[in-house]
Amino acid sequence: MYASREDIGYDFGDDSKVRSKPIKPNPNIDGGWAWMIVLSSFLVHILIMGSQMALGILNMEWLEEFNQSRGLTAWVSSLSMGITLIVGPFIGLFISMCGCRRTAIIGGVLNALGWILSAYAANVHYLFLTFGVTAGIGSGMVYLPAVVMVGQYFQKRRALAQGLSTTGTGFGAFLMTALLKYLCAEFGWRNAMFIQGAISLNLCVCGALMRPLSPKDLREKHVVRSDSEENRRKALSHSTETIKSNGGLGEEPEKKEEAANEEVLGSVQHIEIGGKSGSGRSMYGLRLFKTVSQLTVTVRKGFALWYSSYFGAASLFTNRVFVAFVIWALFAYSSFVIPFIHLPEIVKQYNLSRQDNVFPLTSIIAIVHIFGKVILGIISDLPCISTWNVFLMANFTLVTCILTLPLMQTYVGLAVVCALIGFSSGYFSLMPVVTEDLVGTKHLANAYGIIICANGISALFGPPFAGWIYDITQKYDFSFYIAGLLYMVGIIFLLIQPCVQKKQPREKSTEEAQV
């Protein structure tokens, strides 16, 4: 349509030093343990994103329990969804220092704690802190590692792997909606949240499955990627030279940092060898000092990588297509979240509760969402298909559905629109793929952290805004219209920048031909 995956790629110098020598493919890349990573990510999406998509059930319980306005009550769900995504850039720092596995395990404990503490809520404001903030931060600490690990373990079938793992959102929305309905009916919403907190401890198991790749494995993946994307790098020579003229992504500072770190560890080892003849207490002190030194080195390296990605001479924000992608994310996610939070009430207003109880509209979105992610992932992996174009077409379909939904006042009409929303929103599985094509594997954690942070801001303000509009107009129609128009603005940004990005290398090649 406008630009292919190759056209929008952006080289940060990750593969500049890679030689095109034949290597033995690693069995863990695109196979082996990689499918355990997909399983882990799938379960994470069920427990986190699926649970959040089912919060409309709890939202109705909170409205009855605390008797607050719809706008104020919707902030509980929005805080949980929004903070899960907004903390992405800071979780990227945790990943750089501690790795995906430790970050995810800590997040699993924090998420379960948030659910359990929320069972004792005395008012809505208490839920803001326990469920919105505590459970939200815990969710973010598990969600980002789950996405990043799939990107690290897959090269040839990235879109399919991300599609399979993120179908957990659809399965989770369907399962958690039914589970929370049953638990609230049988035990009350407080006990339902307590039980859900216990279930969320399984996130720690998912985190334990996130076995990190060795540096050697990552280098081999970069070599494979370098060979398969030779044409992309040539097409983007103009962009690459622009970055190099501004200074590489902190390569020289990184080398100096590594040299300083090696010097610190070397001095510690020298002291340790010289002190072997000392007392046991001295040896214990040396070991403690060595551990602290290694931890300091790890923190410094992680922070340096995180800092250079955001504030370095060639930070992620020098990529104009990536900036357009961030602007799109600021408007897009609320259009998907608003139906999940407010559809139960819309159904109640239209007197469609009997049909909805048989087959909830949110469950229709969730089920079709599963097929949408897998099918769009398979299509995007075809060699003749551009992931970028599939991504744009799915966005156009979704924004059309959002603008059409208020016009439907029958169950069949709403069900058809909800099915289209579910299928087209399957583009979420393509977001990590598009992000990796833009910035490379090395910067995927930080870049995707920024994208989901922008999504989080959208999710944070979307549902309360819809509730506020309802409190004024007593209708949800204007909420969907405004959300759809803002979403369209974000899509326009995506359409403009790839054209500019694609045009620049052509102009340069013409000038060279004249010379």
From TrEMBL:
The chain crosses the membrane at residues 33-55, 75-96, 103-122, 128-148, 160-180, 192-210, 321-341, 361-379, 386-405, 411-434, 446-466, 478-496. Residues 220-233 have a biased composition (Basic and acidic residues). One of its GO terms (cellular component) is membrane. It is found in: Membrane. SUPFAM superfamilies: MFS general substrate transporter. Residues 220-259 are annotated as: Disordered. Keywords: Membrane, Transmembrane, Transmembrane helix. It comes from the Eukaryota. One of its GO terms (molecular function) is monocarboxylic acid transmembrane transporter activity. This is MOT14 protein. The lineage of its organism: Eukaryota, Metazoa, Chordata, Craniata, Vertebrata. The gene is Slc16a14.
